[in-house]
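=== RUN LOG ===
request id: a7f3
mode: sequence -> structure
chains: 1
length: 202
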Amino acid sequence: MKRILLVEDNTDLAGGLRRNLEHEGHRVSVAGTAADALALAVQEVPDLVVLDLGLPDRDGYHVLERLRATGCQSPVLILSARGLEADKVKGFRLGADDYVTKPFGVVELMARVGAHLRRTSAAPEAAAGVGLSDDVLRDRYGLTERQIEVARLLAQGYSNAEIGEALGVAVFTARNHTDQILFKLGAATRARVGAILRGQAR
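=== RESULT ===
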């Protein structure tokens, strides 16, 4: 059972999301203010934060910034009516992992939540491997600095679209980097990249 911190001041929306998340087997804590969100995150580190930006006391960006400043590495999925590119870029720069614009499809949101929780579960396993350093990836395999960034995101299961959002590049650019990484690492599939980076394969 995963713990999700849902930060949403709209009680009707929060209630609906909570029911859907609990139906998926998750344990959900709801915060209607920035202050409550930060307090709950300190009490018990969540496996995922679903964060609204329009909170009554402080902006959701403040919550995100404080979480990252205090060392919280939990994935943060921003859920907001603000759909401008500048809003999304600011969120990613402050450390958000995903950004969903309201109104949204519940099925898609649940899929995104599941994807982030799977990555969280896989992180300890990945950390247990010896892992290849940036120097090895650069010197042995010829990866550029940007390709190393992309490779590490691939190893976490990111799609090309998600890589593009995370690094602020076009999906086409992310796809080109991915193709080059597969070629340089001699990896037949994207899934193989993770094993190679963990030092568990060539």
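=== NOTES ===
The first strand starts at residue 3 and ends at 7.
Residues 125-130 have pLDDT under 50 and may be disordered.
=== END ===
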